[in-house]
Amino acid sequence: MGVTVVQNFPITENRTGPSTIELLTKRISALGAIQQGHFLVDCETYTSVPQLGNPRTVHILHNSEQPATVFSILETENKTIPLATDGLFDLLMIKMANFYTSKKQTKAESKGPRYEIGDFLVKLGTVTVSQNFKGVLVEVEYRPCVVPAMCWELMREFLQGFLGSTAQSAPPLYLQNRMQDIYSPIDTIHQYLEQFTIYRKAPGLRT
Amino acid sequence: MERDLDQLYTALNAIKVLRSNVGSVFETVSNGLRADHGEEGKENKFMLELQDVLTTVNNNLRDVETAAANLTPPPGPFNLGNTAYLSQETTQERQALYGQLVNSYKWTDKIREYSTLAGNILATNSFNKTYKTFSTTKRRKTQTSNHNVPPEVIENLITGIDRLFPDVTINATRPFVPNPVIQASLGRVLKAIIAFKGLMIEWVIVKAHSESSDLWTESRYKVFRKVTENCHAAMCHFYSPTMPDLAVRSFMHWFHSYNTLFSCSCKRCGNHLHSNLPPTWRDLRTLEPYHEECK
Amino acid sequence: MTSPGSAVDSLSAAIKCNIIPNQEYLLQGSVLDQYVEVLLHRLRGLCDNVDSGPESFNDHELCFTLRGNTPNSSMVLPLRVRRALDVPDAPWQLRYVGQHELGDKNRPTAVRSSIDMACSSTIVEFLTELGCRVDFEYIARGYMFRKGRMKITVSKIFKMGSMASKPNESVEPISQSYLVELSVLAPSGQDAIAEDMRIFAEQLKPLVQLEKIDYKRLAHIQ
């Protein structure tokens, strides 16, 4: 698992979601990318029942890149705890239905095509929150390197190459404190959760 | 004889003077009216000047004629030597002399240019890798072969390179006794599995830390496959049978420069990426990063 | 190229096809310390991997319960977390075990639902923040044998001496015997495996008596 950056691609006024994806697809194919299947990242949120005391939220995320793993992030007022388990954790959540209830309306997912160029992996995702289209998320992974500080410049150059001026110049918020740590798949999930939270809060399309 | 020479010199002088004055005639005519002819009567002054110069030329011509008349013709044909051949075929169209001269000049010029370049390049890879020293004055101890050395020497070499850099950690295993296979981890960037034969490096393969430590499977990532190729080139470049530990040390120095594989930009084009690869080449002397296409 | 189905979809498909092992068939017994060597020899001969010998393990298990704040809340969820003390890099195991049904005399083993999964080491903090409390913890050291799908463990349970920082030292055994467990994890409805377990248990008969234990009766014994 290499260093991954998840970034929102703002949709201009006169474009729709599929046409934005098409535009990005054209750009990335011009750089020589080959499509290698599809990907899906989804997120479901559960909140604790009042009998448990302080309100806590559990986000359960799946990433098709790690198909045998279920990621969960528990958020209390001041702590965030990540966890990675086998696929059966979903069954366990069903058993915990008395304690943690889910709000079906906030199910968020990002899915779309997946491309490989050289040692890069690019995923162009259409974000939908409970079946409503919300925006476009671009995920870029540079597989050989596992330390963000070493390859951030390189990735920024690559992002600028096909996102143009919309590419961020600073690393994502989640990574800024962890530039020297070894990157692991849960970090990607944190970034997706960050983005999904913004999407959920935005009414209509995210600008 | 001297009188002849004197007359010859006089005649030649006269011709020189005539020539220069004819030159000044043409100069005057081509310059036309000049500023120092003044405002009034410019044309008259110009005409007077022209007349003066033409009379000078006439006088010179008369001098030349008298001088030439005083010359005695030579008794017989001159001995021209090789220059006689110049008169044999004087028409340039029949003789391809000019064209051939130009071509041979170009050819010699190019030869000279190419040989300087070739000389420079060949000098860097001196093929003088023979064992023998032809100096018989000092007696050196006979160099033992590089692949048949006692194990302690290899041990010393490995501990030596282990101490060389703090961020390169070495693990040595001995699957083929006594030749070690060392795994050198360069920080968190990559790891290289280097197989020795005695004191010489025989095979290098570069992979990511997460991949297997197998000597035979290639890396999954294009960038490390490229670095492996470059390591092989460097391994051959630094090969020196006469100074094996210097060879290994120089190779390790060069290899250590890869710890900036992902973070530095190419010295020539300034970018991090070229055809989706970071600068995978390190110059063999200056250790500067270059892209594969920029080196 | 079809898009990947979501994980929940594949999980529900797996449940429908009945391939997820979510039931545990269990037989338990105990053997005194002085006879455990004989039992180990017998098991070594009966089980797979005769030449490589039994695998030893040294595990630390914590038992959590998730319950509501109200005192007589009926919602209680027990969870167990197990980690290997001898292999520090091994993943931790999270387990949910339900109430076991003894059934009638025809059913040779106890059956209980169990969901078993590997997890990262942040599980303890996760469960604590989720609202679980540690009920008890212990250390189990012993040997594990396999025969086909069956797993036999012979382990000694130790009480934790000091805090969890140094769980290897200052432990004391809670009894002078070893706990022997024979279990199989299988999808529901495969009751034939219970019969195989009973036949295997017969072969260990004079040394150790493996049977289904009724915990409710144990609770009454004081």
From TrEMBL, chain A:
<keyword id="KW-0804">Transcription</keyword>
<dbReference type="Pfam" id="PF08612">
    <property type="entry name" value="Med20"/>
</dbReference>
<keyword id="KW-0010">Activator</keyword>
<keyword id="KW-0805">Transcription regulation</keyword>
<comment type="function">
    <text>Component of the Mediator complex, a coactivator involved in the regulated transcription of nearly all RNA polymerase II-dependent genes. Mediator functions as a bridge to convey information from gene-specific regulatory proteins to the basal RNA polymerase II transcription machinery. Mediator is recruited to promoters by direct interactions with regulatory proteins and serves as a scaffold for the assembly of a functional preinitiation complex with RNA polymerase II and the general transcription factors.</text>
</comment>
<comment type="similarity">
    <text>Belongs to the Mediator complex subunit 20 family.</text>
</comment>
<comment type="subunit">
    <text>Component of the Mediator complex.</text>
</comment>
<dbReference type="GO" id="GO:0003713">
    <property type="term" value="F:transcription coactivator activity"/>
</dbReference>
<dbReference type="GO" id="GO:0006357">
    <property type="term" value="P:regulation of transcription by RNA polymerase II"/>
</dbReference>
<keyword id="KW-0539">Nucleus</keyword>
<dbReference type="GO" id="GO:0016592">
    <property type="term" value="C:mediator complex"/>
</dbReference>
<protein>
    <recommendedName>
        <fullName>Mediator of RNA polymerase II transcription subunit 20</fullName>
    </recommendedName>
</protein>
<dbReference type="InterPro" id="IPR013921">
    <property type="entry name" value="Mediator_Med20"/>
</dbReference>
UniProtKB/TrEMBL annotation, chain B:
<comment type="similarity">
    <text>Belongs to the Mediator complex subunit 27 family.</text>
</comment>
<dbReference type="Pfam" id="PF11571">
    <property type="entry name" value="Med27"/>
</dbReference>
<dbReference type="GO" id="GO:0006357">
    <property type="term" value="P:regulation of transcription by RNA polymerase II"/>
</dbReference>
<keyword id="KW-0539">Nucleus</keyword>
<dbReference type="InterPro" id="IPR021627">
    <property type="entry name" value="Mediator_Med27"/>
</dbReference>
<protein>
    <submittedName>
        <fullName>Mediator of RNA polymerase II transcription subunit 27</fullName>
    </submittedName>
</protein>
<dbReference type="GO" id="GO:0003713">
    <property type="term" value="F:transcription coactivator activity"/>
</dbReference>
<keyword id="KW-0805">Transcription regulation</keyword>
<dbReference type="GO" id="GO:0016592">
    <property type="term" value="C:mediator complex"/>
</dbReference>
<keyword id="KW-0804">Transcription</keyword>
From TrEMBL, chain C:
<comment type="similarity">
    <text>Belongs to the Mediator complex subunit 18 family.</text>
</comment>
<dbReference type="GO" id="GO:0070847">
    <property type="term" value="C:core mediator complex"/>
</dbReference>
<dbReference type="GO" id="GO:0006357">
    <property type="term" value="P:regulation of transcription by RNA polymerase II"/>
</dbReference>
<comment type="function">
    <text>Component of the Mediator complex, a coactivator involved in the regulated transcription of nearly all RNA polymerase II-dependent genes. Mediator functions as a bridge to convey information from gene-specific regulatory proteins to the basal RNA polymerase II transcription machinery. Mediator is recruited to promoters by direct interactions with regulatory proteins and serves as a scaffold for the assembly of a functional preinitiation complex with RNA polymerase II and the general transcription factors.</text>
</comment>
<keyword id="KW-0805">Transcription regulation</keyword>
<dbReference type="InterPro" id="IPR019095">
    <property type="entry name" value="Mediator_Med18"/>
</dbReference>
<dbReference type="GO" id="GO:0003712">
    <property type="term" value="F:transcription coregulator activity"/>
</dbReference>
<keyword id="KW-0010">Activator</keyword>
<dbReference type="GO" id="GO:0016592">
    <property type="term" value="C:mediator complex"/>
</dbReference>
<keyword id="KW-0539">Nucleus</keyword>
<dbReference type="GO" id="GO:0006369">
    <property type="term" value="P:termination of RNA polymerase II transcription"/>
</dbReference>
<dbReference type="Pfam" id="PF09637">
    <property type="entry name" value="Med18"/>
</dbReference>
<comment type="subunit">
    <text>Component of the Mediator complex.</text>
</comment>
<keyword id="KW-0804">Transcription</keyword>
<protein>
    <recommendedName>
        <fullName>Mediator of RNA polymerase II transcription subunit 18</fullName>
    </recommendedName>
</protein>
